[in-house]
Amino acid sequence: MNALNVAVIVVYLVGVAWIGLRLSGKQRSASDYFVGEGRMPWWTVCFSVVATETSVLTVISIPGGAYTDQGFGNVELAFGYIIGRTAVALALIPLYKRGGFVSAYQYLQLRFGRYLQGVASVTFVVTRLLAEGVRLFASAIPIKLLLSEFGVTLGYDIIIVALTLLTVVYTYLGGIKAVIWTDALQMGLYLLGALIAIAVLTGHVGASGWSDALHAGKFQLFDTDFDPAHILTSSFALPTAIIGGAIFAMASHGSDQLIVQRILATRSVRDSQKAMVASGVFIAVQFAAFSLVGALLWAYNDGKTPKELGLSSADGLYPDFILHGLPVVISGLLVAGILGAAMGSLSAALNSMSNSTVADIIHSFSRREISDLTMLRLGRIMTLVWAALMALCAMGFSTTTGNVYLTALAIAGYTYGALLGAFLLGRIVKRANEFDAIVAFVATVIVMTFVVRVVKIDVTVAGKVTEKGIAAQWLVPIGVAVTLVVGGLTSRFHPAPDPVPPPEPVEAVA
């Protein structure tokens, strides 16, 4: 039985990499390698965006949260994300596509100059290295436990290296097209896994189980506690989820090259906009599916706490059901889906980091013209370099303290406001020049470091006062405000620069 499950996992992992390479074809240019020559179907790009932002932790933590006290709060968050993605589709995507960019930060070069472009790119790759290194190590934790149930005992380092090697093969050879196609396949598998789990659980608990979960508040969608302290510290408070979530999505999907790169691979502005907005809808569907798994698991386990079930945390509920509640082969396929979620986020990070390094740093600061073939070779070399650094970073976290782990997870809070703020400064404050933008960028990172690490708010829960940090969704609006204020003030001390001509329109690929 264990051997059959392991065989399913191996066949899936090898097969999905092979399919991705076959569908990607031969890479003939840097544009082909980084944005697929702008020829990818919008629906595959949509699925790739969803897979890129879905890690192993997403797959296992949302059911755990719904099981305990979050209900369908993640779906509430998704509503804010849809609003933010719609704003990006209308305000930023036309700029990127008209300019024929392969990186979002090329707009910053056009508007301000190459130094701000370089600052933004370095900020992106450092942020992504830390965040994805943590994600990779965190992904290895449940994977190790799942594989051990199948009789395969591997250390964290071996799992990290194996995942990195397998992912880098199709990322190195197939570029963004291989990444997008494999992402789409992997998203389909783990979403199918959630639907299978829902069907099996429904068969166990029946209509009465759904009713019990409903009356226990497991389907609660909106958090209507409007206490100011709760709003500032809880990701699920209604204003936080909708307003903060929308602005957070504008940063994560409008100024983060990890996502923007996929959007630039579509055929036209219209296709890019469809992919962006549809990804928000699919995220809501995905969050609803995983939340429903958690609610039905609560009914399946008669409302027992994770500790009563012998689990260390709620994150173990869904993996435990996969291993012990599903038939052989199906459980192996769902474990493969969890592995696929890890590979999807890793491949996306590697390709986007390589893209930004080559386009925003090497190409922009080179004193001589770099041929397209050289750019392609550099892109592949940087994919290998970042893969090695990512694996080393992930293995380093296995021996560090929890504080470093949490700091790396929250790293987006330090930088997202500055990144989105730089784009908005260029669009809103016409007097701002490159010096203003760099000063505002650096000032924002300094201020946000203080906000994330120092600012705490007293929150009263069940009569007990505890200190909590500001919710991640509010960090981006704060950062954007700092960038616009600082950049706007410094721009008053010099004449307005000459207006920057808009980028020449690029023909849509038929």
TrEMBL record:
GO terms for molecular function: symporter activity. It holds the Pfam family SSF. GO terms for biological process: sodium ion transport. Its main location: membrane. The keyword DNA damage does not apply. It is a multi-pass membrane protein. Keywords: Cell membrane, Ion transport, Membrane, Sodium, Sodium transport, Transmembrane, Transmembrane helix, Transport. InterPro entries: Na/Glc_symporter_sf, Na/solute_symporter, Sodium:Solute_Symporter_SSF. One of its GO terms (cellular component) is plasma membrane. It is found in: Cell membrane. The chain crosses the membrane at residues 6-24, 45-66, 78-96, 116-138, 158-176, 188-211, 231-254, 275-301, 321-343, 378-398, 404-425, 437-455, 470-489. The keyword Transport applies. Belongs to the sodium:solute symporter (SSF) (TC 2.A.21) family. This is SSS family transporter. It comes from Nocardia mexicana. The lineage of its organism: Bacteria, Bacillati, Actinomycetota, Actinomycetes, Mycobacteriales.
